[in-house]
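Protocol step 4 of 6: structure prediction from sequence.
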Amino acid sequence: MNGKKKEKAKVLSQKMIAPDIYDLWLESSLAETAGCGQFVGVYPKNGAMLLPRPISICQVKKSGDMAEGCEALKEPGISALRLVYRIAGKGTAEFSSLKEGDEVELLGVLGNGFPVEGSKGKKVVLMGGGIGIPPMLQLAKELKASGNEAVIILGYRDNRLFLKEDLEQYGKVVIATEDGSVGTKGNVLTAVKEEGIEADVIMACGPMPMLRAIKAYAEEKEIEAFISLEERMACGVGACLGCVCKTTKKDHHSHVNNARICTDGPVFDAREVDI
């Protein structure tokens, strides 16, 4: 993507909001060009870990936006990114120790985003599962700002419902839990069927089994679906080919049925990927 750059970001706040899940606000000029569905690469300070960790953007606060979230955002003119991530290895474990005032290096803004403009006048249903829930917040916010309030279906393992109240500001929220402790017992598609939810467009992020099921459901019902693929990435800029996925169409550069999730995605039309 044009305009990506490295920059130092300042930690405004960080807190744990569920076991091993952290809510991090960073002051960064990257927020001025960031949108829903995109991500940033966050560099560990540990020199043994050379590559940035890709973390999806949960929320964007541009310099002209009203303050929300942490106290530091009330200062006028601040641009900030909210990253909500799960500890998945040494890099993210290091990030969890970041404190207010610390600095961290970012690479961004990376990837494409969800097609908010193309959804005007359509019945949109958002589906987030697990750590695929955070990107739904900025997406729901942008949809509502464009005059299209979505139904938001969230899938959790249990009753630790991180970001639920944040998302309720931007649409009707429906909950599914694997253990049945809150809402529908099952997954996001169980909730769709139980609640009789209909959609013209589905936009989703979550683990691969969930996305495969959404792709199959959308094809069966002839519903347009856009899915954000979560994949381990190395460079984040399309150079290493470490995060390719199979596609139904041939890439016009390489002439093979592959796409790079970091640059061609992470958001794809579900009909165009073979997952």
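Step 5 (inspection) to follow. The helical segments are 90-95, 134-145, 164-168, 188-195, 208-221, 261-264.
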